[in-house]
Design brief:
single chain; alpha/beta; Rossmann fold; Tyrosyl-Transfer RNA Synthetase; Double Stranded RNA Binding Domain; 3 domains; 17 helices; 11% strand; binds tryptophan
Length: 434
């Protein structure tokens, strides 16, 4: 397959603002037009449930975001544009991944850790007000990505860890059940600057400093008039450095226009005039899309139809792939028994011993689990025969482990309990007995 699959999700928990447009919507739509890419864009409404408990807001945001992407030029014929909750295969895959994902991995997720740290600082129970949904967030996100075997996932920096976790889960699943998933990579758009908001900080819903992308013309004008500036009077030269107004202008203007405004700053343009220029420039780009947006908002049935068609398209991939995954994990038609025996032969990931010689001339071995993680490390033996005899004892005799540990011939690896090692030895013995 030579095409690259690119996928990204948008949580349906707010109203799109200029920062979203510049940072995500506009570059994504441009990228979706590139040759050789197959793009998937979806409304992450299951994710929204983690943050929002007002049903009407979820519905409203889903409508607004769908209308925004279409109004901004996303071509649903060319890409696959769908709503997460229309693809029931995604929660099914979430469960498969839940069963291979280490709980410890999720403990380390930034969003969960931040919640725990905040609670600990406040002296309340660490998990106070933390839902299992928040905890499981990275698994649902991994399912979104792995379901379509996306190669690249354009996201903000705050999401990089989630993509790494998705890779981790994909690798664990592949290791256990065979090669099913592509390992995805995060794609961070370096050239897209973050847009400042009304107060000069990053434009973000959580700072309450946003300019809604499709604010009506008059409201847009008013909001722009409210952008924070310094108190320099008309005629006084102004600094472009640190000027939110200038940065926002730059995100919409051509380099030549930007150079002109820079000159106007140096020449002491009045803030009111600069704001007028910014307003006109933004409105020029937004106005045609705003018209489309308003029309779509008046016709939710058009978006509903479009999203359902998108889901059908997505499921043409998701449904057969899920059939394959169900089979891989063992959720199978009981009448089809023959595959089972064959598979056991070629795919039984087991713990194993690894023997080697060190620079000190002595002979050592390690015991690793099915994923290659170190469980036990031996001390040095004078001959390979001695090391081999120790391995043989461990793999045949359940009491040999305790004896070797007590004699310090063997040590558990950091973070491994003797019980873990014993369980893995047991697993190996069982498999060998078969
Ligand atoms: N978590 C992402 C965000 O908050 C949204 C999202 C959900 C997503 N599933 C995804 C992004 C899958 C990329 C791929 O921005």
């Amino acid at each position: 397959m030579s095409t690259v699959r690119v996928l990204t999700g948008i949580t349906t928990s707010g109203t799109p603002h200029l920062g979203n447009y510049v940072g995500a919507v506009r570059p994504a739509i441009a990228a979706s037009r590139a040759p050789g890419v197959e793009s998937f864009y979806f409304l992450a409404d299951y994710h929204a449930l983690i943050k929002i408990d007002e049903p009407a807001r979820i519905q409203r945001s889903t409508l607004e975001i769908a209308a925004t992407w279409i109004a901004c030029g996303l071509d649903p014929e060319r890409v696959t544009f769908y709503r997460q909750s229309d693809v029931p295969e995604i929660p099914e895959l979430t469960w498969f991944l839940t069963c291979i994902c280490g709980k410890g991995l999720l403990n380390r997720a930034h969003a969960y850790k931040a919640a725990v740290d905040k609670n600990s600082a406040a002296g309340v129970d660490p998990d106070s007000d933390v839902t299992a949904g928040l905890f499981m967030y990275p698994v649902l996100m991994a399912a979104d990505i792995l379901m379509f075997n996306a190669h690249r996932v354009p996201v903000g920096r705050d999401q990089i860890q989630h993509i790494e976790m998705a890779r981790d889960m994909a690798a664990s699943f592949n290791h256990r059940y065979g090669e099913h998933f592509v390992l995805p990579e995060a794609e961070i758009e370096e050239s897209v600057a973050t847009l400042p908001g009304l107060d000069g900080r990053k434009m973000s819903k959580s700072y309450d400093n946003t300019i809604p992308l499709f604010a009506p013309r008059e409201q847009l004008k008013k909001l722009i008039a409210g952008i924070k500036t310094d108190s320099r009077a008309p005629g006084e030269p102004k600094d472009t450095e640190g000027s939110a107004l200038f940065q926002i202008y730059q995100a919409f203007a051509t380099p030549a226009e930007t150079a002109q405004l820079r000159q106007a700053y140096a020449d002491g343009i009045a803030w009111a005039d600069a704001k007028q220029i910014l307003f006109e420039r933004i409105d020029h780009e937004i106005a045609p899309m705003r018209e489309k947006y308003e029309s779509l908002m008046r016709h939710p049935e058009q978006l509903e139809e479009l999203l359902r068609a998108g889901a059908a398209k997505a499921r043409r991939i998701a449904t057969p792939f899920t059939t394959r995954l169900r089979h891989a994990v063992g959720l199978r038609d009981l009448r089809a028994q023959d595959g089972a025996k064959k598979e056991k032969k070629d795919k039984a990931a087991l713990p194993s011993f690894k023997q080697y010689r060190e620079g000190d001339g002595q002979f050592y071995f390690k015991f690793v689990d099915a994923h290659g993680r170190l469980l036990l490390q031996s001390a040095g033996y004078a001959s390979p025969k001695d090391a081999g005899a120790a391995i043989k004892a461990l793999s045949q005799d359940p009491t040999a482990l305790q004896t070797a540990l007590s004699a310090a011939q063997l040590a558990p690896a950091a973070g491994v309990s003797p019980a873990d090692a014993a369980a893995a030895l047991h697993q190996l013995r069982e498999a060998q007995a078969e």
